[in-house]
Batch of 2 targets.
Target 1
Amino acid sequence: MRVTKPSEGQLCVEIADLVPNDITDEEVQEVKQLLYEHKLIVFTGLDELANKDYIRFASRFGEPQKYFQKNYHHRDHEELFVSSNVLEDGKKVGVAGTGMYWHSDYQFFEAPLPLTMVYPKRVEGPDRATHYIDMEQVLRGLPPSLRLKIDQRQAIHEGKWRYKIQESDIDRSITDILDEIGRMVPPVKHPVSIHHPLKERALLYISRGFTVGIDGYPHEESQQLLQELLAFVELPEHIHSVPWKLGNLLFWDNRQVLHRASDNPHRHPSVSYRIGIYDGLPFYVPRT
Ligand code: 7UC
Ligand code: FE
């Protein structure tokens, strides 16, 4: 494999000439190290990977996840989270337009998802990409007045507002649907800044997609603080984009980056298969 590291202040290691089916244990270790150090990897120039080979490749880095909602699952492989707006045999598969907002996967769970792979399968139209924000860089640059306000604080996260309506929801009321999904994934708290199990520097861990408040402040103050923090997080200079190309596979550490799918307003055909991976390490550790 051929490794190109990012320049200072940039994200994303590029790994070319890797054959997933032939990856050795040493290469797995090397990729892991690069991932934790640099937060985001793109494998380039891959030959088309069969589903089972993709799952096997992901399994080298940990335990593949089964997404908590079955409507996202691939028909034959529940480890594949299918993001697609393309019908197969006239039928809808997976979910269209997933993750088009800043987030970290499973942030609304007690045990968030450590690693994510995304394998674009159909790429059409201009500007298809996944965008990233380096949350170590963000925390480092956070104005001291904001930093003071989040010290020792917890953020509250909810998944229910991003619930996607399914066919079975027709004739149900919005409140019913929200109550049900709210019972399935109740609000959780995580520290506003977290410590990675393998790294020195702390990371900001909030997102516009899933974070609904900062715990311990009166409602209005909590909302205002959250909006100020999110406005800083999403400053254009914090955003790194990785264009989608066939033969590329994206791989990142959800502890260290936020991500969002690019917009697709003209609904160009778009298909990608994601695999979530539990790497066997805690998502974050207590500060030392
Ligand atoms: O459809 C989506 O945007 C999926 C989202 C609600 N969850 C992705 C995740 O792993 O947190
Ligand atoms: Fe995501």
Target 2
Amino acid sequence: MPHEFHLKTASLALKATGILVLYVAEDAVPAGAAAAAWQATGLDWARVAAAARFRGRQGQAVGILVPAGLDADRLLVLGTGKPGQGDSLSGWADRGGSLVSKLAGLKADRVAVLLDDEAATPERVAALAGGMRLRHYRYDRYRTPKKDDNGEGGLTVTLHVAGKAAVDRAIADRMATVSGTLLARDLVHRPPNDLGTLEFTAEAARLAELGVEVEVLDQPALAALGMNALLGVAQGSARPPRLVIMRWRGGKGDGAPLAVVGKGVVFDSGGISIKPGAGMEDMKGDMGGAAAVTGLMLALATRKASVDVVGVIGLVENMPSGTAMRPGDILTAMSGTTIEIVNTDAEGRLVLADALWYTQHRFRPQAMIDLATLTGAIGVALGSDHAGLFSNNDELAARLIAAGLESGEKLWRMPMGAAYDKLIESRFADIKNSGGRPAGSITAAQFLARFVNDVPWAHLDIAGVALASPQTETNASWSSGFGVALLDRLVRDHYEAR
Ligand code: BES
Ligand code: MN
Ligand code: ZN
């Protein structure tokens, strides 16, 4: 079987080929269907647990090979910790992810999981299933299959649950979100010769099949709008710029939409202020913000979310050439603000400046959130455990932080203010595009704030979490797809009519 993930649910039964998984809480004994399965082995639970030093703590495991009385090759008992521990949806997703990594270690391709205890609500079982699929993902589109590799790594999962119909509904809903995350990962992984601005546009246009309205602005249209900041970045590349607008109208259409804006630099060489060679290949992922916006639109349309959301992505390539913008150039953004370019590698903020200005004026959104792999400095500050959150609105910031905890895509709020804003004052223009090394992520956010009026706005700097293998229980690949699960959660909690 190729590296595919197959999932089904079944009513409780102890039939399992491959591995049969039971969960046991800390200092507890197998209960419900797990108790019946254990009984079939004829083994004494207390003796086995003591011999294996198993107490049911999170991460603990006992395996029994070819257990008598069961069809399974192996019975795997996993600890879940104290009752209530890890019971957030992200905790259940992590449980699924950690199971997949255990199974990979055992080279298992078939697993059945007993999930009938009362903590296993449909939503939590769905989160576990989603976590399994997320962890199983890998990007292998460009790998030639080896001859002796008869498709290692495929996984067929059966979840044995108490109320199958409700669980199936919850899984379908959760898998919509997971598909959005996996689309974002695929886009971020795609090599930059294969994913230019036009290829990305084509991927976004495919969402029309799901009922998303997709509109594409080309270079002349952007020039007519006066988007000279975005166009300045694109002008050194053979690839033309695009601004793609995706609308999902699932709400009643009676309120202002939520707007989500993404940085889509398909490759960031730095331009004339060229980056050092080491690690430059990572800059294929500099469209992680745009990928998250596109993945979110896929998720919302797939699960037919009852909400109006507009997604806007600025697609450009930052290259050095005879037509590239120079340090010293002064650009006039769509807002009329003049920008002195002091570093052509501070390009993402130029793209967002015009995309944000355009979005708030055209759509008058109730809130506007941008996602961008904006600064290396955010990875220095926060590593890969939190993305940076910058906001002009405490309520929006609090909602995002809460959605981060529940989705497992965590945010840490960073300061903003006049003292930081001063660092981007320019000698020759209204502002300059870099404040230098001190507070690099904050001055980037201050730059964006110059293009935001009084709309509640949040900027998520995802440079530390979106790419370069930010490993978690639910991600073993180079790109995480960060932002899709977070914003999908935010929409579910606050913007969806129910
Ligand atoms: N795309 C980069 C930021 C980045 C770095 C993303 C590492 C992902 C991983 C951005 O365009 C950039 O080059 N930022 C500069 C800003 C500086 C020139 C003010 C940076 O972070 O060094
Ligand atoms: Mn750059
Ligand atoms: Zn960049």
